[in-house]
Amino acid sequence: MAGECQNAFCVVRPPGHHAGPRGQVTAEDDPDGGSHGFCLFNNVAVAAAYARHMYRHKGIQRVAILDFDVHHGNGTEALVRNLEPTTVTNTFPTLFGDVTLESPSYKPWLDETDSDNVLFVSLHGYGHGFYPSSGRTGADRPVFNVGWPLCKDKNQASRDWRTAWRNAVMPALKDFKPDMIFLSCGLDGHRKDEMNHGFVCLQETDYEWLTEQVVEVANVHCQGQCVVVVVVVVVVVVVVVVVVVVVVVVVAFVLLACLLACACLWLPVCFFLFVLCCFHG
Ligand SMILES: [Zn+2]
Questions:
Q1: Distance 146 CA to ligand 1 centre (A)
Q2: CB 27 within 8 A of CB 74
Q3: Residue-wise pLDDT tens digits, 223-280
Q4: Within 10 A of 117 (CB to CB), how many other CB atoms are there?
Q5: What is the 184 CA–ligand 1 centroid distance (Å)?
Q6: What is the whole-number distance in angstroms between the Cα of residue 3 and the centre of ligand 1?
Q7: Ion ligand 1: protein residues whose beta carbon lies under 5 Å
C-alpha cells in the first residue's frame, strides 16, 4: 500500500479457511466439524477485513477472495455471510434431551455495506462426503461456490478446471470490479497430493495459469494489487512424519542397547554356571 510493490506472496501457517466466526464450522453431513482443518485463525479473511477497514481512504473499497484449495473454504464463507446480521442455531445434548439455542451473530469488517463490497469465490472438491461436506455449486452474493466432482479422467481435469474458472468465475470477478484480490491458495488440489482423494487433480501449470488470469484482472481493476495467501498444511504432515521417524529410531536404538547390555551381563554368569557344572561332573 506504500507503493513499493504491486503484489504480495504470503506463506502462512496454520491455514485458515476452515475457521469461522466462532471457530469450528459444521455442515449437514459433518455436524461435529471434523478436524477443523488444522485452522485456528482465518488469515485470508483477517487480511481482507484489514485492507477494507484500514485502507478505505486509499482506494480499497471492494475486496475479493478467491479460494482454490481442494477443500471448500467453509470458514471464510461463514465469515463473509456473517457480515450481515444472522441467527445461529446450536443444539446441545442434556440429561433431559437435546436443547436448541438461537443467538444473533454479526461481525462487520467496516460497515453495513460490507456484503456489497466483498466477494468470496471457492472452487473445491464436492461430493461423496469429501471434507468439509459443504459448498454445493451456487451463487448467492457475496458467496459463489463451485463444487467440483471426483476426477474421472486426469488428462481432462486441468482443461475442465480452467474452463470453469474462465467461464464461470472470471466474469463474476470482472463484474465485481475489486480494488484488491486475495488468493486463498491451498496446494492440496495437486494430483500427487493424497489429501484430495482424487478430487480436482491439478498440475503445476494450472496454478501458474490461474495466477496469470487473476493478475490480468488485478492489472485492470486493482492497479495490479493481488495478494497470494498460501496455506502450508504440508508442513504439519512433514513435521509429524519426521518426529515419528526420529522417535522410532531412538526407541529401536535404546531397545538394541538394552539387549546388548543384558547379553554382556548374562554371558559371564552363564560361563560361570557352565564351569561349575563341569566340576560337578
Ligand atoms: Zn485443503
A1: 15
A2: yes
A3: 766 666 666 554 444 455 556 666 677 777 777 776 666 666 666 665 666 677 666 6
A4: 21
A5: 10
A6: 32
A7: 69, 71, 186, 188
Phi, psi at 130, each rounded to 5°? -60, 130
Residue 20 Cα to ligand 1 middle (Å): 15
0.85 exceeded by pTM? no
Are the beta carbons of 118 and 84 closer than 8 angstroms?
no
Cα–Cα dist 275/71, whole Å: 72
Q: Separation of 178 CA from ligand 1 center, angstroms?
A: 25
Q: Fill in the amino acid letter for 189.
A: G
Q: CA 212 → CA 191, 207, 217, 224, 277, distances in Å?
A: 20, 9, 9, 11, 86
Provide the grid cell at 26: 459444521
| Residue 275: DSSP 8-state | H
Supply the Cα-derived Rg of the chain in whole angstroms: 27
Closest C-alpha among 205, 198, 213, 118 to residue 166: 213
Q: Cβ(115)–Cβ(82) under 8 Å?
A: no
pLDDT of 187-223, one tens digit each?
A: 999 999 998 999 999 999 999 999 999 999 999 888 7
- Whole-number Å distance, alpha carbon 167 to ligand 1 midpoint, is 24
Q: Provide the angle, in degrees to the nearest 10, between the axes of the packed helices 204-221 and 154-164.
A: 10
Enter the C-alpha cell of residue 213: 488470469
What is the DSSP track for 124-176?
EE-STT-TT----SEEETTEEEEEEPBPS-HHHHHHHHHHHIIIIIHHHHHHH
DSSP string covering 50-64 = HHHHHTGGGT---EE
